[in-house]
Specification:
By secondary structure, this protein is of the alpha+beta class. Helix content is about 20%, strand content about 40%. This is Polyhydroxyalkanoic acid system protein.
Length: about 80
């Protein structure tokens, strides 16, 4: 997954995001996402049998949650392939 971490930028609809990633541990990647004048923090946790994405959205961006969730679900399989 390390070599594909830059692909996460494409998960934000419209590609209008700056995403910084780093590995906090072997099983957790932390992200800082800057988009639409907002900054969001998130994690990618590698679990047995699952990869869990968590992004804390500010209230001003709560309307994009369904778009981001759909993009992650749709693109996540490609990222892991």
């Amino acid at each position: 997954m390390d070599e594909k971490q830059d692909s996460i930028t494409g998960f934000v609809p419209g590609g209008m995001a700056d995403v910084e990633t780093s590995w906090a541990s072997e099983d957790r990647m932390v992200m800082t996402i800057r988009a639409m004048g907002q900054e969001m923090n998130g994690n990618v946790d590698i679990e047995d049998g699952a990869v869990v994405f968590t992004v804390d959205l500010p209230m001003a961006l709560s309307f994009v949650e369904p778009m981001i969730q759909g993009a992650i679900e749709q693109s996540g399989r490609k990222l892991l392939a």
